Amino acid sequence: MAAVVALGVLFGATALVGVRQRAALVRGVTVRSGELLVAAQNLYRALSDADATAASAFLSNGLEPPELRARYQQDLADAAAALTVVSAATDGRSIAAVARITARLPVYSGLIETARSYNRQGLPLGVAYLQEASGLMREELLPAAQELYAAASAELDAARDRAAGFPWVATLFGLTTLGALGLAQVYLTRRTNRLLNVGLLVSTGAAVLLLGWLIASAVAAAVYLKASRDDGSAQMNLLAEARIAGLQARADEALTLVARGNGAAFEQHYVVVMQRLAGADGDGGLLGEALAAASDQPTRQAVEEAIAQCRAWITAHRQVRALDDRGEFNEAVRATVGPGDRTTAAIFSRLDEALAQAITHNGQRFEREATSAGRALTGADVGFVALTVLVLAGAVVGMQRRIVEYR
Amino acid sequence: MTVRHRVGRLLAGLLAVATVVGAAGCGADDQALPDHRIPADPPRPVGMRDPAVVPSAATNSPGSCNPRASLRPTGPLPPPRQMPARTAMARIVQRGRLVVGVDQNSYQFGFRDPLTGELAGFDIDIAREIARGLFGDPDRIQFRAISSADRIRVVKDGTVDMVVRTMTMNCERWQEVSFSTEYFTAGQRILVTRGSGIESIAQLRGKKVCAADGSTSIRNIAAAGTVPVSVVNWTDCLVLLQQNQVVAVSTDDSILAGLAAQDPNTQVVGPRFSDEPYGIAISKASPELVRFVNAVLEKIRADGTWTRIYNRWLRSLGPAPAPPKAQYRD
To answer: Residue B153's domain is classified under what CATH number?
Structure first.
């Protein structure tokens, strides 16, 4: 009898501890890892956006448009805020990347301000500083941000795998408890010649229920967690990568023009990034992948819109290059940032908007699925305690009475 | 009763174990804080090379010639818009505008004024004088910004009527295009921070000196025993000088003038240690246009226009010298 009770207690305890840990892990997926990923993504995007915006502002001769200046400042503030979150949440391995960004971001913004004051005096030196700043961004800041983003993404996956693990130990104890209860029943039947012992029956029933609940809740949580990846964070990752590629191509386009005929290296980078974004013919690349992975209508629609805008951009960019290569700089600038909705700036902002929408939408789906995973576990701890008590009480009461009767 | 007692003790024990296991999940906060150092290296311009790759010596120029000698003008300038029939000038007047290949990246020579987006500079003003000679109107001109590598091609294929773009006349290029008479004499010098005490290239031995990638200037400064650092664009050299990453910049004084004009704390010092006569490149098929341009240059040298243009753009090189003397081969 002591063995049955011990097994019952072990089963109940492992099930309870297991489900509480799982609930904590699921909460970790939604609250901690999910938000860390969003912060790392914001950091990466804000830095890329600052690079693109600073370069675009230089196209407008001397006085940069106030809205571009405001956007650049917002980018720096966003990057700093996201960096604080990332550095608070990150583990030892990523601390080097955080330190790199923290040390270099003020240097970057210093170079941009130097560039800006020279540009306002009408000196080409401003462009040289802008290019140096952009080089610092691309060679040091963006790779570090990308590293943090990859680490956050890996952490989310690891947390999700831990939260979705099968409760082997508790299941094993459960099966053993059921076996022991069965043996006890057989033993008592032989000793007392009664077919069934009500106490043991209740105990067995409670043990079966507990085991069933344990397995069902774990499986349900795992299913929701998988959905949170496939219908949420995986698509969000792909879309965010596409958005950042778009920002880099935008920066390249502006830097090529700003370089006044010395921008061949930026144009080459544009070609590389554009190929990554849209493939060689405009319907592959990251956007193609995102369309193939899109698992609901709003996402598909947003990605289709992004692909259409990307095609328009490639055509418009070709015109800009043709104008600039012919030496018609002012016309090329008008085709880039001039008035109207056919400029590359207007097309790009529609592309960026479509991707931003899709990212927000998939972020919400991620949260919904991860919350459902948590909900699959609600009440389990209370239920498990109650059932464990029932298992123990049934066994003790049932066996006690018979033993007392026959003593 | 003893049985019940034992069960109770067992239960208590197991619950205690479970509690400990559960609590162990919450990590301990006794880790040391990470220690991290980031070197405060100055940022580097994209494509900077330290030390620079020194280009190999120039291929020996084919034959020997006097690169300064051009074609003599035929008499005085015709009145504007009344060009002799069947000449390149008549065709340009017919078209309504002069097409000129220029630089948009050499401050003070040919550059985009960031405030207006328009081209301006010494070369641009010289080109406008030629438009004035043809049309009586310096604005009847279309500029085509071209790269240094395209200068000869656009003249040969007729994309432009002429190239006015800090172009050194040499015998090798004379094989491909014709040049006007010399309109500016450049030579390699050094740009240093004001008050640095440096006055000649000899004082830069073993020190870092900046020049553009692949330029002949690198060869000259490497030969003088300095440590050459190369960048993609000349303006990057001024950035490096301002950031104390190099102690001097060395190239044609025409380019140095553009750098010095952007930072009053720098100055062009020392004697010229190379000789670069600049000419206007024109197609070999239009010798009459070469003679016409030379006549325009004669006029602006004589009437003070050249000096006025020089003072407008190149004041940082000191007071205007006398205009370069025309030399003719026929």
So the answer is: 3.40.190.10
Chain A closest-CA separation from residue B303 CA (Å): 31
Window 112-151 of B: residues touching A by CB (8 A cutoff) are 112-118, 143-147
Whether residues B172 and B289 share a domain: the answer is: yes
Among A6, A95, A123, whose Cβ lies nearest the Cβ of B34? A95
Q: Is residue B148 part of a domain?
A: yes
Q: Please give the structure tokens belonging to residue B181.
A: 């008479």
Which pair of structure tokens corresponds to residue A108? 């970057």
Helices (H), B47-136: 88-95, 122-135
pLDDT at site B330: 80
Which residues of chain B have a pLDDT value below 50? 1-4, 17-28
- What phi and psi values does residue B157 have, to the nearest 5 degrees? -90, 5
Whole-number Å distance between alpha carbons of B210 and B199: 16
Q: What pLDDT score was predicted for residue A308?
A: 94
Q: CA separation (Å) from A37 to A25, A89, A302, A354?
A: 16, 10, 22, 20
Which single residue is written with the structure tokens 């078209």?
Answer: B95
Residue B7 contacts A where some CB pair is shorter than 8 Å = yes
Burial class (CB in 10 A: 0-12, 13-18, 19+), A362: buried
Q: Is residue B132 part of a domain?
A: yes
* Predicted local confidence at residue B149, as pLDDT: 79
Task: Determine contact: A378 vs chain B, CB below 8 A.
Answer: no
B291 and B230 in a single domain? The answer is no
Q: B7 to chain A, minimum CA–CA distance in Å?
A: 7
Angle of the B88-95 helix axis to the B287-302 helix axis, nearest 10: 80
Mutate to test the interface with B, among A108, A262, A384, A391 (most CBs of B within 10 A): A262
**CA-CA distance, B200 to B189, in Å (whole number)?**
8
Contact B235 A125 (CB under 8 A): yes
Q: Residue B295 belongs to what H/E stretch?
A: helix B287-302
Q: Distance from CA of residue A391 to its chain's centroid?
A: 42
Q: Given this model, what pLDDT does residue B25 score?
A: 45
State residue B61's pLDDT score.
52
Is A315's Cβ below 8 Å from some Cβ in B? no
In a domain, B26, yes or no: no
State whether B114 and B144 are in the same domain.
yes
Q: Is the ipTM of this complex over 0.85?
A: no
Structural domain range at position B263? 188-269
Nearest to B239 among A103, A129, A139 (CB): A129
Q: Which among A9, A20, A327 has the least Cβ separation from residue B11? A: A9
User: What are the chain B neighbours of A139 within 8 Å (beta carbons)?
Assistant: 46
Amino acid B117: pLDDT: 77
Q: Which of A11, A397, A202, A5 is nearest to B9 (CA)?
A: A5
Q: Which parts of chain A have pLDDT scores under 50? A: none
Number of compact structural domains in chain A: 1
Q: pTM of the prediction?
A: 0.84
Structural contact between residues B222 and B53, judged by C-beta atoms closer than 8 angstroms: no
What's the pLDDT at B297? 96
Pairing relationship of beta strands B98-102 and B141-145 according to DSSP bridges: parallel
pLDDT in tens, B61-83: 556 789 999 999 998 899 999 99
